[in-house]
Amino acid sequence: MKLKNILCAVAVTISVNAFGQQYDLVILGGNPGGIMAAVEAARMGKTSLILERNSHIGGLPANGLGATDIATRGATTGLFSDFTQRIKAYYTKKYGKNSQQVKDCSDGFHFEPSVAEKVFEEMLAEQKGKITVLTKRQFNFSDGDLQMTGTKITGIRVVNRNTGADEYYSGKIFVDATYEGDLGAAAHVPYRIGREARWEYNEPGAGRTYEYWKSDPAEGSTGDADNAVQAYNYRLCLISDPSQRAPFIKPENYNREEFASLVEDVWTGRNTWKMMRGVTKEMMEANRKAIQNGGKSTLPGDGWGILKLVTINTLPNGKTDANNQHAAFISTDLPEENWPWPTSSWEWRDKFAKRLKDYTLGLFWFAQNDEALPQSFRDEMKKWGLAKTEYEDNEFFPRQVYVREGRRFEGMYFFTAKDALPVAEGQRPPLHKESITASHYALDSHAARKREEGRVHLDGFISYPTAVYTVPYGVIVPKNVDNLLLPVPVSGSHIGFSTIRMEPCWMALGQAAGAAASLAIDNNVKVQDVNVPTLQDRLLDEGATLFYYRDIKPSDSEFKTAQLKGLRGEISDWNYKK
What we know:
This protein is of the alpha+beta class and 578 residues long.
């Protein structure tokens, strides 16, 4: 029996009279962070309930984010490595080890959305009797939806979206694995939304910032704090194979004016790369003439056709992960309009999700059909469509908005840019001896505001390199709630959060949350009082990397010894073997 069928059967049984149903862990959110928390807890003998609002599990990897965001492979391992190995094994078994699909899966780091969902389902299904997943369960984070006694959560109320009935569950430990931080907010954990000022933590890119893509702050960059939230979009699964693509349909509320500025961007080659500093008006007019004569844009950094609109990452079976085009003034991100999302009701969020879908479809319709655009550009755009073997129950469109950032909590440790930046050239970032995972990605934020006249790029679109860093236990632990862990809406500044918000890190933090919850139950202690060395010992035994070396892997016999030496500060070099 497939996992989906099992979940439906469980849902029917429990919804009849669920009051008082108790689990060791109650996990809000069926994304990778929540899934890994449940799997790790199950491996330690604990029961978990995952409450997922959507009809499918898997979060963003099952909704278009198929090109894994990680700068150093091997920096994050444990259950994340289990996931990537299963991805590769799937393609190897189905297509053969020398197949193009195996090559395109890039050792399991690139995958189709439907395959990611299958692998997550497989990981859950293996823990028979330990994990219950209920989909279409909505937590409204209003008064009465969370029961607390003092500083301890005792129960949660969700709405069964299939029946409209309220359901109540209790647990020993609660885990907020939502992208928004809804559970932590209901438990009154202090949180932040928006951007800190540049000078609050002396972080690059903080506050209001304009810069050419991957450049330095330009005119207008004040560094001031505000309530702006970085843009959301849909990670699209596109394909160019005519037999496998579904066409972009013009939405009913199509508004051409939203996309009109793209016309001149295409004709002139205007983009946001720093090479534009050397581009003159004469060069842009020459570009226009070249296009009029049947050519394509030749300006530095400028994309043509689909690459003007999105970035493309190859996935197996000819599919792609199409993300916002970072060098564009207009792409699939929709800044400003998402600002209310983190604290708004699901009614508002659903309206925005529909608005974002219509905007995205309208953008592609415009790029393929508007006669103000060059015919050659439109012809290139018409080669692409939605992959019709994905999201077949949702018009081939992703089911979930890419919520890059919601609430950020103020926990036992507050992660900022300094935690991810080397203390000196060639050296590591600061060592956290309470590390629960290593990770690596740039300080990376998408735009906070739409295009503004005279600006070189959209406000807030930044990227700064980091080095492999350690993430301390305190980022997932609130100060004021005894039995709550926050592995997804973690504790950090906007810039600090911008690097640890990637799915590999969230999977690792979810695994750590599952282990920490199990230890808290076993020892009858608050999550704040979990013995971190014991937690680290468990994670190392499961192949998690807490301190990254370039020359040693979890499969090496000396891996655990090397990790412990690194955490004690005995070895600061990037290599273990001298």
